[in-house]
Design a protein that fits this description.
alpha/beta, five-stranded parallel sheet, 14 helices, 9% strand, binds cobalamin
């Protein structure tokens, strides 16, 4: 992407004046010049603005928020590609030989060095994809796959402890009826928690009327229903539409798309769990 400031402003929902101020005061934007001398902004600029917005949404003051964004780029975190790949290799070897101690040590090492966002996005989600591909090819047994995903789930839920506490807006997260994949939802909950949201997690395969009852009691800012397969949403269409009329509803996961979201009267949470958590800043800012 290479766009002028007006287009950047439209994409991120921040006024041109404010973007200019962030560029001038904090060096948050680093435009190139077009041949005609216009400033052109790229993906990195957009990413910095989005990170800035999520810090602001958590109540961090602007100068400090900008410092956090720029600091994160300077730290070794910013170039973890090779590192993440090595970590993934260690984790994979440990998990797939049922070595609990080594798997936990690999995860502890990651947690000591990288942010949870980075671990989720660059290590765990790619590992789970890789695991699925090798399971499909018959290179990994069902036992290995269950063990690996179960251990990761346990560790993530350990990190999720008390994610319902605090004063931020509440997310009610649940798997669609029949849906047993919930690691994406958990990853999303953790990323949202780091951005100041509170989370109530119902887990896999929850009957929609029961989700509606929980939502009536808890009054969440958003109910998020995750689905890996489309039919988990389509087979509960009427109930989900009713839920969407009684509570703000979003759908997510590889089973969700714009068309089904529209049909259900729901918002679509697009992309990976971490980018989707970033996009919540727009929701809390009223941009929904
Ligand atoms: C672990 C796993 C399981 C575990 C789940 C444990 C758990 N508690 O989650 C168990 C063993 C239960 C399981 C069961 C099954 N699984 Co399975 N599973 C996987 C595996 C290896 C990892 C899933 C995972 O967590 N991935 C990490 C998530 C984050 O990645 P993702 O799903 O691709 O999601 C992306 C986006 O959609 C988004 N996202 C996902 N969720 C959310 C949520 C929110 C809120 C947001 C914002 C974004 C978001 O983020 C991701 C990155 O961009 C995948 C392989 C894979 N490619 O993912 C197969 C996979 C998903 N499973 C598959 C299948 C076929 C099954 C079974 C039908 C197998 C069977 N014959 O029994 C059952 C179905 C059970 C059911 N009723 O739901 C297929 C699905 C194919 C399809 N789409 O039709 C896959 C892709 C494997 C494959 N390559 O064939 N599975």
């Amino acid at each position: 992407m290479s766009v002028r400031i007006g287009e950047l402003s439209r994409r991120v929902g921040v006024s041109v004046e404010l973007l200019r101020a962030w560029e001038r005061r904090y060096g948050l934007l680093r435009p190139d010049r077009s041949n005609g001398g216009f400033r052109l902004y790229g993906d990195e600029d957009e990413a910095r603005v989005r990170r800035m917005q999520s810090h602001l949404a958590r109540g961090v003051a602007a100068a400090e928020a900008a410092e956090l964004v720029l600091e994160a780029e300077r730290s070794p975190e910013a170039a973890p590609a090779a590192d993440s790949e090595a970590a993934r290799g260690r984790l994979r070897a440990a998990l797939e030989s049922f070595d609990e101690a080594a798997a936990n040590a690999a995860l502890d090492d990651l947690l000591a060095r990288l942010t949870l966002d980075t671990i989720l996005r660059d290590v765990l989600i790619p590992y789970l994809h890789d695991l699925g591909t090798r399971w499909e090819r018959g290179e990994v047994s069902v036992a290995q796959e269950h063990y690996a995903s179960g251990l990761i789930r346990g560790r993530l839920l350990g990190l999720a402890r008390e994610w319902g506490r605090g004063v931020g807006p509440l997310l009610l997260l649940t798997g669609a009826p029949g849906e047993r994949h919930d690691l994406g939802l958990i990853a999303f909950g953790l990323a949202a928690r780091a951005r100041g949201w509170r989370v109530t997690f119902l887990g896999q395969d929850t009957p929609v009327p029961d989700v509606a009852a929980a939502a009536a009691e808890l009054r969440p800012a958003l109910v998020v229903v995750g689905a890996t397969m489309r039919r988990r949403l389509t087979s509960a269409k009427e109930e989900l539409r009713a839920l969407g009329r009684s509570a703000p509803l979003a759908v997510a996961g590889s089973g969700a798309n714009e068309a089904i979201a529209l049909e259900l009267g729901a918002r679509l949470l697009e992309g990976d769990p971490i980018s989707a958590a970033d996009s919540l800043a727009e929701l809390s800012a009223g941009g929904g």
